[in-house]
Amino acid sequence: MATMVLTVAGSLVGGPVGGAIGALAGNVIDREVLFRPKGREGPRLTELRVQTSSYGTQIPRIFGTMRVAGSVIWATDLIEHRSKQGGGKGRPSTTSFSYTASFAVALSARPIHGVGRIWADGKLLRGAAGDFKARTGFRIHAGSEDQAPDPLIASVEGAALTPAHRGIAYVVFEDLELADFGNRIPSLSFEVIADPAPIAAGAILAELGEGAVASPENTLALAGFAAAGASVRAAMETLAGATGGWFRAEADALTLLDGPGTAIALTDVGAGAERDIRGQRDIAAAETAPRTLTLAHYEPARDYQAGIQRAVRPGAGMREARIELAAAIDASAAKAIAEAALTRLDMERERRTLALPLGALAIRPGERVTIAGAPGLWRVDRWRLEDMVVLLECVAVASGALPGAASGGRVLSAPDLAMGETVVHAFELPPLGSLAATPRLAIAAGGTGPGWRSAALLLSTDEGASWTPAGTTAMPAVLGRLVTPPGVAPAHLADRIHVIVVELANGAMLLHDADDSGLAEGSNLAMVGDELLQFAHAVPLGGRLWALSRLWRGRRGTEAAIGSQTAGDRFVLVEAESLVAIDLPTQPTRAQVLAQGVSDAEAAQAQAQVRGVSLVPPAPVHLRARALLDGTTEIRWIRRSRNGWDWIDGVDAPLGEEGERYQLTLTLADGGDRMIAADVPHVVLNVEERLAVVAIAVRQIGAHGLSLPAVLALPLPGEG
Questions:
Q1: 555 by DSSP, 3-state: which?
Q2: Per-residue buried b or exposed e for 67-76, using 16+ beta carbons within 10 Å of the residue's own CB
Q3: I need a surface site. Which of 186, 231, 316, 462 has the fewest CB within 10 A?
Q4: Which tens digit of pLDDT belongs to each residue from 249-265?
Q5: Distance (Å, rounded) from C-alpha 118 to C-alpha 128?
Q6: Is 694 helix (H, G, I), strand (E, B) or coil?
Q7: Would the pTM of this model clear 0.85, i.e. be above it?
């Protein structure tokens, strides 16, 4: 007896692809040679999710678009970078460390079109627009047969020792910053685009078969497929079996068939030379077929995460079947495949054996046939020749499942936020906490995109002649520019008249209201031009515009800047976590800052005039004159302190300086002026002095300089 078998690929026993050439040579092959008791194992879904770096790891062939982890094929040691800040004036410097690494990852054993998104530890490292969320050099080697070695690998290993990895698609990261990943190489996965459009399962099988498999008929289109597993043959069997296909023997190849099509009409007539041989019909018990079938797959709508679809048939049985299909398909298509596969396994319980004359030798295994007296379409599963009688064992061909809706479940995708360009502002900030011993520069930065996170800083205090690293920016700040300036208003009263309109850098930035207690505690403090002010109400106007009203003006001694703003000036919400404070030398009058983020083609620039407002006391307030009974005039004022801004107990704030001293400039009626000093917040002018003085300016003398003046005009006697 000779037997030739071509079963549905991917069923209990595999094998028709690998044995096709030998079978076609003589059209006869023994079942025990073609098939083995244990089926081959196709690719499992977990193989594509876990990044490896072991020798001998299989690299899948990627078709369509798939998400794969890849295999690390080359890497450097971590590279340490040092950044030194501060120092001078007896203060210790601060040295910070950061780390980068360079490495290469193999993605596909066939050429690819490109790489889309990249995930690092589950978060997007590269967005759909190709923007990176961390600084790195990145190159794609598409896997052509003429690709050159990577220049970085060649520079490290030597040109003679660097393979070009022709036929292998791989990517190279150069100096990937590792701060966001715990200073280690993160676990990466890649959206590999091998073919720009979905690809038919038959076309995949034809390429994997390398000429031994033909697929002339339309087959299921897959968004992506990864051919991996114990062998290419196993991948082919898994793919063909999951899509309901089988193979038909041709003269020198196999043809993939799938579902209904042209069929040969047969009649079981019985034939034999010495004895009559008749066909038969066998139906296995229902319990032998699975009652439940589970299909595992990758779902593009869920960032290619593993999805599960189940099909359940009514009736008896406890068996369960599982198909792991390393393909990217949507939930509805996966549900249809599962339903069709379960129906097929149930229908294949019925087998018909036909006894035909020798003229039926031309009927090939895998051929579609119709059987007289038996409804439906059948395929030849096994071919036998006994006593000059051709016996064809046939199984029913199930029609495909009707398309229906299915849900892949809810998924929380990693946010893909545009980085945008860096926006940076630099300004000298009055003390908000501890006192400074040198001018203190505040740097706030954000981005025009909601995904902006940080930028590297460079600082110059010599008009750009030299630049020194200044670390990185702090948390993204809420900032933008003035559209409508705040105008002029007193600093000692709430400004209920003016409304500021600001345009924030991106639409994800938000502003909030604050009540009086919140304002008293420092909420909604903003640097607007050179004036610090607070706002109680913030109203969105649409887009990135906000209207700010009920203002507290000239905060922290910045009342001299009230009314100096123009359209286009800076707006920065002052929050400690979003500011970088840098101590400057005492000499510079201007500081310049460069800030460059991951997505910046050029560095953003900012500059600030250094006037010492972070060092000197604020100007005195409540300057007033009072005539005494003896004809003299007393000038009094209230001092303020950079070491205390809240008047919570009715007594003076802490001095905050080495001693209490004042410099008074008396403007004389004849156009001259005269300076006097005081160590208490008042002086007395005698009659002659009072008659000669038309104005007085009071400055507090601080440890590092003079405050701004508080000025009082003194009308001449008789002038009202």
A1: helix
A2: bbbbbbbbee
A3: 316
A4: 877 778 888 777 889 99
A5: 9
A6: strand
A7: no
Is the separation of the CB atoms in 190 and 105 below 8 Å?
A: yes
Helix (H, G, I), strand (E, B) or coil at 34: helix
The single residue listed with the structure tokens 């094998």 is: 15
Q: CA 500, CA 9: separation in Å to the nearest integer?
A: 72
Helix (H) or strand (E) holding 237: helix 232-242
Task: Give whole-number Cα distances, 339 to 244, 323, 654, in Å.
Answer: 11, 12, 80
Taking only the tens place, the pLDDT of each residue in 289-315 is 899 999 999 999 889 988 999 999 888
Summarize pLDDT for 161-210 with one digit per residue, the tens.
999 999 999 999 999 999 888 888 899 999 999 999 999 988 898 898 88
Q: Please, which contacts does 309-314 make with residues 24 or more away whose CB atoms are closer than 8 Å?
A: 309/334, 309/335, 309/337, 309/338, 309/406, 310/338, 311/335, 311/338, 311/339, 311/341, 311/342, 312/342, 313/289, 313/342, 313/343, 313/346
Element spanning 106, H or E: strand 91-108
Total length of the chain:
720
Q: Which residues contact 671 (CB under 8 A, 6 or more apart)?
A: none
Q: In the chain, how many H helices and how many E strands?
A: 8, 45
Sheet arrangement for strand 710-713: 673-678, 662-668, 693-700, 710-713
Find all residues with CB under 8 Å of 629, minimum gap 6, and list them: none
Distance of CA 376 to the CA centre of its chain: 52
| Strand positions, DSSP E, 406-553 | 422-428, 440-447, 455-460, 468-472, 479-484, 500-504, 525-528, 531-542, 545-552
Tokens standing for residue 140: 């794609």
Residue 716, CB-side half-sphere exposure with 13 Å CA sphere: 5
| Spatial separation of the C-alpha atoms in residues 355 and 384, rounded to whole Å | 10
Q: Best-predicted range by mean pLDDT among 42-56, 274-288, 659-673?
A: 659-673
> Is pLDDT at 9 greater than 50 in this prediction?
no
Q: What are the distances in angstroms from CA 143 to CA 167, 168, 618, 655?
A: 4, 4, 67, 72
